[in-house]
């Protein structure tokens, strides 16, 4: 379900000039790439061996070997559904809309699994478990995800506060100390409120975790820890469907990571959240 070519196309606008040369070569000659050594790909794209390896990792793969394996799968296997990702309300029947939403969601989860930074997840869980209070901020659809992690942390008797109100969060941040942290959840970061909160938190020297869609550099530059997920929205505007599902999956993973960190605490055992 992971598509090397689709991932390259999606990330292309944010790539560096060197990355774009490699991307163009792979997009134009995918079959040849599967049979080429790193050195040959570098020569053909007028880059370097190291740049090709970095490119593979940039699109969520472990290296050039995995890139070629995934390309072979993509070029030889039958398409999963043959369905377009675009939902057409004029022509699509009810079953087709269901299938498109279903498979777009699966694709988003699968691609998130490919690009996720496991170390960032582990560090984020450790930071949250040690924080005296976690301040959670998200607006619009991401506000629902923000409230989900607030509820999960409170279920563990952690001190957590969530709001989608810029003014309320700014007031909280003004009195926050170095033992507290800010967790910001945003799909694309288009909201001025999100940027304002992140900028103010960094001015206050607070630890910041950001959960966002892939390649949101204008958000992640404020983050101490950045967790990125995939999104497969094609023609749906301002409603982050697949992105929301990927966000919630990450929140569930963080929840279990935190449970693992505190599982030996007597207070956690009393909660009886996870039965043996």
From TrEMBL:
Molecular function, one GO term: DNA binding
Keyword Transport appears in the UniProt entry: no
Protein name: Putative HTH-type transcriptional regulator YbbH
Species assigned in the record: Phocicoccus pinnipedialis
Alphabetized UniProt keyword annotations: DNA-binding, Transcription, Transcription regulation
Keyword DNA-binding among UniProt keywords: yes
CDD domains: SIS_RpiR
InterPro entries: Homeodomain-like_sf, HTH_RpiR, RpiR-like, RpiR-like_SIS, SIS_dom, SIS_dom_sf, WH-like_DNA-bd_sf
Biological process according to GO: carbohydrate derivative metabolic process
HTH rpiR-type domain boundaries: 2-78
Residue ranges annotated for the SIS domain, each copy included: 124-264
Pfam families linked to this entry: HTH_6, SIS
Transmembrane feature ranges: none
Gene3D superfamilies from the UniProt entry: Glucose-6-phosphate isomerase like protein, domain 1, Winged helix-like DNA-binding domain superfamily/Winged helix DNA-binding domain
